Description:
The radius of gyration is 16 Å and the shape is globular. It is of the alpha+beta class. It has a single domain, classed as Peptide Deformylase (Alpha-Beta Complex). Strands 1, 2, 3, 4, 5, 6 and 7 form a 7-stranded mixed beta sheet that branches. The protein is 24% helix and 35% strand. The structure holds nickel (II) ion (NI).
Amino acid sequence: MAIRKIARMGHPVLRQVGRELTPKEIKSPEIQRLIEDMIETMHEYSGIGIAAPQVHESIQLAVIEFDEDSDRYPDMGDQELMVICNPKITVLDETEQSFWEGCLSVPDLRGLVPRPRKVQIDYLDETGSPKQIIAEDFLATVFQHELDHLAGKLFVDRIRDITKLSFIEEYQRYLSPAQTDSDEGELED
Ligand code: NI
């Protein structure tokens, strides 16, 4: 396993639409090694998800994992490690929820991003088998953030009120839910 270098905003790979994988490719040693590296990279940087374009691979692959015991996301529940290939997203509830998002590819910034609160994801797992998950609330935002990476989008593209884009230090001081008493949540992938 190896920790991969993270592409930062401005690198063209983050703006490309990732190529789909065949089930046979997913099972190949190359992709299995990439999956292991992405997991190790996510853990190294304390992310809760990472998408292949963030490690300079323009393919439809992402991993997501977070843990209730994390001090960064204490009230957000658990999500066991999931490997997601070729995801298709369907919005089940368009009601918007807003979370303050961050991203390993957009370091030192946070932005308030409105997204639908409930989605269905159809995808292939790490063995190439079809799977489906319905994600609500925080998990729905996590999925949409990661899947955006596979479509060449970043969270900053989704910010509707650009005054809600901030450096982390100023965010913590002036804008965070703890400071403003709002019901907005936080996410950094
Ligand atoms: Ni991200």
